[in-house]
Design brief:
alpha+beta; single chain; 4-stranded antiparallel β-sheet; Enolase-like, domain 1; 27% helix; 5-stranded antiparallel β-sheet
């Protein structure tokens, strides 16, 4: 049985108290919400904080409330509570689909929205037990000096595997970060860096407190498609979040497309702007899917054969856009839609 290393446990009852602890402890402290990511990482000695600061007693971090022209969701709101919220399901289907496909129902009961956003990057060479990693002389992300995915590289290529971030980026969401120095709000996309180790633009003393999503605009729709080996539990090896607003005659007025799990951060796809001013016909979908799929450059850091994963990106993008057009996306060649998710066939 793997056990966590020794640590000091703190359970503040207010945001001010939690901020003060982080200010005083610095990089020796880590935040605990649901613990579905941090605790296994501690058992594998991937993360070894001296102080663990629980956020579960801070009620304001679980709040859901209208916020001007949108909705504000507390960072420690569980994924199960998020999925059960009828406003999320009806107004923001991309986020609903992303949240409902995270792990299993048991883990969604514990896992939180903020925890999923801040999910540690993953890699075949990093997500192993301590003895396995020691046997290969560790890796750059923890205790080593080399990236086993790309040994000649000077950086870590661990991949972002958060489901909620691509969906929230497509929806135009923003996050609020609080510390003893004050508060700041940034777009969800600005929270992430393209670095497998320093993957968050969050200071050690900052707490992600909430997520704000703008209210849905007339004619807007969103969706989220996920590729994984099993029909549940698995992290995404590729995901596509799409949001689109169309006018009365079907012309695209605005569009956002985000790829997940193909880099150390979710990637906003510039090619989505090519749809603006056009009718969403097959030619437009093919053109954007072809260009967007070029951003998917999978490495040997997760599941499936690299070439197949890259080809799958084009099919997922096409499927998401076809769904937003109103098509039935049940058949996509080598991929099949099942229960709101994508799994490989054959």
């Amino acid at each position: 049985m793997m056990r966590c290393p020794r640590f000091k446990y703190r359970a503040p009852r207010s945001l001010d108290e939690a901020s003060a602890i982080l200010r005083d402890e610095g990089r020796d402290a880590m935040l605990l919400a649901g613990g579905t990511d941090l605790v296994p990482n501690m058992k594998r000695r991937q993360q070894t904080p001296r102080v663990v600061v629980s956020l579960r007693r801070i009620a304001e971090l679980r709040a859901r409330s209208p916020d001007g022209k949108g909705i504000r969701l507390g960072a420690t709101l569980t994924l199960s509570d998020l999925v059960a919220d009828p406003r999320v399901r009806s107004d923001h289907p991309a986020l609903f689909r992303a949240a409902v496909q995270v792990a299993t129902a048991h883990l969604r009961n514990r896992g939180t929205l903020g925890g999923n956003l801040c999910l540690d990057t993953r890699c075949n060479y990093y997500d192993q037990n301590y003895e396995w990693r020691k046997a290969i002389d560790f890796c750059m992300k923890k205790d080593g000096a080399i990236c086993w995915v790309a040994p000649g590289s000077s950086r870590c290529w661990a991949a972002s595997s958060t489901d909620s971030a691509p969906a929230l980026m497509a929806l135009g969401g923003e996050v609020t970060l609080v510390s003893s120095r004050g508060e700041r709000s940034i777009p969800v996309g600005a929270l992430f860096r393209d670095d497998g180790i320093e993957y968050l633009d969050r200071k050690p003393d900052e707490i992600l407190t909430s997520v704000r999503i703008p209210a849905p605009l007339p004619g807007s729709h969103s969706t989220y498609w996920k590729l994984r080996r099993r029909g549940s539990f698995d992290f995404p090896v590729l995901s596509v979040a799409a949001w689109m607003r169309r006018g009365r005659h079907g012309t695209v007025e605005d569009a956002r497309l985000v790829l997940g799990s193909v880099s150390s951060r979710p990637l906003q796809v510039p090619a989505a702007s090519r749809l603006i001013g056009r009718v969403l016909d097959n030619d437009a979908i093919e053109e954007v899917a072809e260009e967007a799929s070029r951003m998917a450059k999978p490495l040997d850091n997760t599941d499936f054969v690299l070439g197949w994963r890259k080809r799958a990106a084009r099919h997922l993008i096409k499927g998401a856009l076809r769904e937003l057009r109103g098509d039935n996306p049940d058949s996509l060649g080598p991929l099949s839609r099942r229960a709101g998710e994508l799994v490989p066939v054959g």
